[in-house]
Amino acid sequence: MNKINCHFRGTVLLSLLSGIILGLYGCSGPANSTLQAKDLPSQYEGQAVIFKNLQTGDVDTVKVEGGAFSYTIPVDTTSLYYIDIEGNNSGYVSFIAEGGVHQFKAKDNADGFHIVGGYLNTELKNMISKSSELEGKQSVEAMKILDDTTLSDDELREAHNAQTEAYDKMRYELFSDYLARHPQNAVGMEAFARLKYKSDEDFIEAYEAQSEVVKRGFAPIRRYEKILNAQRTQEGGTYLDFEINTIEGKTIKFSDFMEDGKYLLVDFWASWCVPCRKILPYMKKMVERLPADKLTMLSIGCYDKPEPYQKAVEEEEIPWNQVLDVNSTGAELYGVKSIPHFVLISPEGKIIKRASNILHVEAVLNEKLLN
Fold first, then answer.
1. Which of 10, 135, 152, 224 is in the most buried spot, having the most CB atoms within 10 Å?
2. Closest CA to 171 of 206, 222, 141, 137
3. What integer best gives the mean pLDDT of the chain?
4. 269-306 burial by CB neighbour count: b if 16+ within 10 A, else e?
5. Is 234 helix (H, G, I), strand (E, B) or coil?
6. Which residue, 233, 255, 283, sits at the end of a domain?
7. Cα separations (Å) of 183 from 26, 43, 224, 369?
8. N-term to C-term CA, the chain
């Protein structure tokens, strides 16, 4: 073979290799992510498989037919889906649409489902599994501590606190590791959502340091917004107005309950909240002895459903203003973290007291209305 032919063949081979390499690097990954299921347990035949995107709130469904289903969505590694089947009592399954085909399978013990396939979904499943293992070990060790009759009450409390602190640290290290390795996808988003912080200030600092992807996590962004809202509506500030969508389909304003020269006491509650309902008899007695021309009462139902809420109102015979805030707008705006929660507003529109204990609010009412 002469030098010219050798050179020509080498040039052609180099061009072919370059084309292959460019092709490989130029090709994008799968545009869609498909979740398939086969041979599902017979009790799920004809049931709806529910897909909920936690970041957008969008919900879609497909039916199980012949023990199978197939569902395809665009690739999106920055969103987390919760998947459930009607009639399933084992909880949802988390899913990341990372591209390619994934299998939705029943667990060997028929207790729930899991996702098979995909690097990110495997990482997510492993993280959750490791967390569950830690919870199981902690539970076993906690029982051993409680069963140790040689420990005094103080020693028992000390041992329990030490164990809790040790496992909290292990969980923190576990989720921090996954967050560090996945700062730009839904694995990191879920890892951050599972991290615990000792104070709101620590959480705010950590949240603001995260990537925009991680910040979109459903639970973290809700906590972040609630903390900021609580700060904006703390004692000494001016009350914030908002619209309430009622069960009757009407829209009313919170400010509609502000009356000239009268204080407004707001009680955020729910029909399912035992402490909320237990305190109502005491509140009725409190209101009876306070001057009606100086105080307006308002109970706002939140995180509740119309039927149980209305039933509770009738059973408790609430004598003052009450409304179910269908979207819980007020509770979110005022950063309510637990219920019952009371907010006392002056006639001038200033928030003068916030508390979860009615006795703390009553003390202020006595001072303002009876003196």
1. 224
2. 137
3. 88
4. bbbebeebbebbeebeebeeebeeeebbbbbbbbbbee
5. coil
6. 233
7. 25, 39, 18, 54
8. 113
Tell me the per-residue pLDDT of 268-322, one tens digit each, with 9 for 90 and over.
999 999 999 999 999 999 999 999 999 999 999 999 999 999 999 999 999 999 9
307 and 347 share a domain?
A: yes
Task: Quote the CA–CA distance of 165 and 163 in Å, as a whole number.
Answer: 5
The domain of 144 spans: 121-233
Strands of 93-97's sheet, edge to edge? Answer: 59-63, 48-53, 76-85, 93-97
Looking at the fold, whether 266 and 327 belong to one and the same domain comes out as: yes
Contact in structure between 350 and 236 (CB atoms under 8 Å) = yes
Question: What tens digit of pLDDT does each residue of 86-117 get?
Answer: 877 777 899 999 999 999 988 765 567 889 99
Q: Quick check: is 18 in a domain?
A: no
The 10 Å Cβ neighbour count of residue 20 is: 10
Q: Which residues pair with 308 in a beta bridge?
A: none
Question: What is the spatial distance between Cα 94 and Cα 15, in angstroms, rounded to a whole number?
Answer: 45
Within this chain, do residues 308 and 197 fall inside the same structural domain, yes or no? no
Q: Which of 214, 233, 252 is where one domain is finished?
A: 233
Q: Do 358 and 261 share a structural domain?
A: yes
Structure tokens at 64: 């199980």
Same domain flag for 247 and 299: yes
SS3 94: strand
The tokens describing 189, both together, are: 């988003």
Tally of domains in the chain: 3
